[in-house]
């Protein structure tokens, strides 16, 4: 039975629950918008990393360099699109 | 078909390796798909017209239940792949079935949530904000729905054929998809719900 | 009858009725012809169900050529309409529809399938692979594109064409201002073909990463393969943006949401934002494969290896990232503050640098080379100065403050035709001529080809250079007519004259194909151009399995190495070859998708539901299907190779 619940996965799960609780603090505690967003950004990206590396085995195959390149490329472009669009449509829009 | 026995079954043929790599690249495209939804949502988040704002309509309880269900299902699909690598057919099927049940539960809560929005006057056509909120959640929900059927058919194939390079490959790819949906939910949870209720 | 009224064209004219008759007669003629010659079985078995990358490539290129003539007809109509002041050949509504379909057809249904067709034909051969990574998906990609293209093309005889420009800006594209179903067609046709394109992107990245011949390191890939890799990376990350934008457009038009409205918080300009987040990378999706083709051709016909291989690769990688950083330069005049416009202005000018590096590399490749002025080389040589003019005017447009003068004038129209025609169209014509013998086993006639080249090039200059001047003088784009007092008349007439020359050039190309089918010699060997890369090492036309023996290479110029340095490409023995089976599923699924989209355009919900169920049923069938392909035995390979006097 123990081999069906390897420590790596169980710890990953517990860790992701913990991160969710930390993220929830922005709802239950009174804090500034900036602090709240910082907490959310940190917890969300760590969560994503936990999923990718522990659960999705992103680094295990022969093609890991291609996989990571494609992931980083897409994350880079995703961030450019989000912040560039916010710049074009909200912050820099008169 | 050359089978490489030094690799886990899901990587054991050249075609299998290509399928997995191809799916990773597809996930790159999915990241952009959701990034576009988030982009638009962030721009529209305050453009509520005469409709309600996020803080008016979001409820913490269903969102927490959904988050817990999806996080757990992401854990169990990980266990299913682990069991598959141990050649434990029944355990794999059991974990896969639990994953799908949790997914179905997630979906029912989400449907409840949508009905709630409709009742409090946040339908699809009310404002740019409600329209984009429901489009973003709906796209994620449609992915989960698709995953439920996909997972079910894979489960049937494992049951019938056991583990072979084909079924193992499909199961592994499905697990990638399911984890990815969980990652996207984390971002929805953080930057749509919690940010909106802050 | 009420049901059928929705299919009527809202703004008919004799031209449209004539096209209806013409389309009907053409379809009838094709069906009767195939039946008469009893070719249905052949067509189904060998082409419609094929998963062979070469045949899919040929089908892409045939579709692209057909669309080139459709879009070309639109172009000539526009030039005719504006050739004299106050012309009444087209009215405003028809002119709107014509420039809209011209843009969409040329960019998405001509240029895209042309480059994807070229990649299909050439990339697996250049890397020594048997096929692409996912042959069945490749067929599905093609048929989805084809379904989208056909859906778009029937719009002008059933229900009305889109009329809001190829950029389809809101609020113009909303139900209020675009009352026919035209924009619904736009949304669904692009959605379907976009899906196909995304699948192509994934397919080719995996093919190039995983299926290269032994010895072909990434930095030893031929330049066209490199450009294909980068292009497909851009496709994978750009097309999802379009998917969402089109989805939002559909929701607005067909489900009454307020996403791109100017009421209830909606933001019409966000469509422009999303469109160009996809649209600007799309420009580089078109141009990078063209750069790859030019690199191959210039190197071959200069008799030298490509100058600055590493800088070529580096500049493409930089372009691929930067292409996502410049999109807001398409709407400098929207109302940004100076800071925002400055950022996008600077990135726009910066992206000209890697492109400039490539121009110098081509020039230095030709430097001291023994240049052979064949038809492909003529196009490549003409490309360099013409494209540079287009690039320079692009930098002019990139200056945000000056753009307020150029924006939405004919200057802009001249600029982007000046990059796309010498950049993409010339490359496709050059590539088509260059790889034609590899596809079909005979060459296109050089003499006739040169005539076509001169007509197209000279016609291009006459068509588009006058637009720079009228644009600076204030002629707005998309204006269906103008008064005599503006003084735009003579230059527009010149432009029409140029368009006529180009049209003659394309007719000459068609004649050349027919002439060459009849008259060209067939015993041309594997390598008629004395070329350098791996695709020329196998038979012309290529056999279904591509290479009888897996090739082994030492550089990007594998065949050149074999010819000049004596290194062997084919070292191994002939072994049985694994091949994928043909499948009817891709064309059936795409047909269902066509019905789905058509029903959606016209709000026929029963059709939508039934076809959606049918589509998912096909996917279920596919997941339970067990298809391991088949093997070609050694004896059969040897027989084919001996019969054709092959490489071994």
The largest chain-to-chain contact, stated as pair and per-chain residue counts, equals: A-B, 49 and 50 residues
Strand content bin of chain A: under 5%
Low-confidence segments of chain A: none
* Total domain modules of chain A: 2
Give the number of DSSP strands of chain B.
0
Structural class of chain A, by secondary structure, is mainly alpha
Describe the global form of chain A.
flat
Largest sheet properties of chain A: none
* CATH superfamily caption of chain B: Cytochrome c oxidase, subunit III, four-helix bundle
Could you say what the CATH topology of chain B is called?
Four Helix Bundle (Hemerythrin (Met), subunit A)
* Overall CATH class of chain B: Mainly Alpha
Give the tally of β-strands of chain A.
0
Distance linking N and C termini of chain B = 56 Å
End-to-end distance of chain A: 63 Å
Class from helix and strand fractions of chain B:
mainly alpha
Order of helices and strands of chain B: HHHHHH
Describe the structure concisely for a colleague.
The complex is a heterotrimer of chains A (94), B (198) and C (648). Chain A has helices at residues 7-28, 33-55, 64-91.
Give a description of the structure.
The complex is a heterotrimer of chains A (94), B (198) and C (648). With 94 residues, chain A is mostly helical. Chain A has helices spanning 7-28, 33-55, 64-91. Helix content of chain B is 80%, strand content 0%. Chain C has a single domain (49-583, 627-643), classed as Cytochrome c oxidase-like, subunit I domain (Cytochrome C Oxidase, Chain A). With 648 residues, chain C is an all-alpha fold. A two-stranded antiparallel ribbon of chain C has the order 1-2. Classes of the chains: A mainly alpha (94), B mainly alpha (198), C mainly alpha (648). Chains in contact: A-B, A-C, B-C. The interface between A and C is medium-sized, with 18 and 27 residues.
